[in-house]
Amino acid sequence: VVALLAVAIWPLSRSLIDEYQAARQFPLLADFETPFERSRWVNVDQLREETKIVRHGHKSVRVQLSTNKFSGISLFHFPRDWRGYRTLHWSVYNPQETGLVLNSRIHDIHHRKHDMEFSDRYNQQFILEHGWNDLVIPLEKVQTAPKGRTMDMEHIERFGLFVVQQPRAQVIYLDHVYLAQ
Questions:
Q1: Across-strand partners of 62?
Q2: Peptide bond preceding 11: is omega within 30 degrees of 0, i.e. cis?
Q3: Mean pLDDT for the stretch of residues 56-83
Q4: What are residue 138's DSSP bridge partners?
Q5: pLDDT per residue over 47-68, tens digit each?
Q6: Are residues 78 and 101 in contact, defined by beta-carbon separation less than 8 angstroms?
Q7: Could you say which DSSP state residue 37 is in?
Q8: pLDDT grade, residue 20 (50/70/90)?
Q9: What 3-state class would DSSP assign to 57?
C-alpha cells in the first residue's frame, strides 16, 4: 500500500518540487541544471539532456525539430510576472553549417480571448548562424506587440521557439533562458 501510494503521489511531488525550484531560480526560466526542468516545456519528447554542447553551467537540452509545418517547443510552466524586467535572453547552438530561421513567440493569458491571432502576440525571427547564438528580446517590444492592446506583463503565458516546414529534420541546442533588468 505504501509503495502504491508513493507511486501515486510522485507526479504531484515532482511538480511541486519543480514549481518551488522555478520560483527560487527566477528570473532564470530554464538552465536545465535541475532534474525536472524539461517538464516545464510543451513537447518535452523533443528534448534530450545534453552535457557536451553547453553554453552555461553543465547541461543544455538538445531540441529535435521535425519537417512538420511547425516544429518546436514552448515554455509553459514558469513564474509569469515579467514586470520589472527589460530583456529576455537565451542561447541556441546551431550545429548546421548553414543558417537556420528560428521563430520566437510570446503571449499572455488574454491571447485566447483574441482568438490566438498572430497579431495579438509577440513574434520575431532570428537567423541562427553556425555555433552559439546569444539571443535577446527587449520586453518593451513584447509589451507593445499585440495589435490594439498592451501585453499583460504580469500574466505571460507562453514563450515558444519553432521552425516552419524544414526540408529535413534539424537539431538545435538550447541553454540559459532568463530575464534581466
A1: 48, 173
A2: no
A3: 95
A4: 87
A5: 999 999 999 999 999 999 999 9
A6: no
A7: G
A8: confident
A9: coil
The predicted model scores a pTM of 0.88
**b/e for 153-166, b at 16 or more Cβ within 10 A?**
beebbbbbbbbeee
In whole angstroms, what is the distance from residue 71 CA to residue 161 CA? 8
3 pLDDT tier (thresholds 50, 70, 90) = confident
How big is the chain, counted in residues? 181
The secondary structure of the chain in percent helix, strand, coil, rounded to multiples of 5, reads: 25, 40, 35
CA 123/CA 125 separation, integer angstroms: 7
Report which secondary-structure segment, H or E, holds 163: strand 156-164
Residue type for position 2: V
Residue with cell 555555433: 131
Helix (H) or strand (E) holding 71: strand 70-75
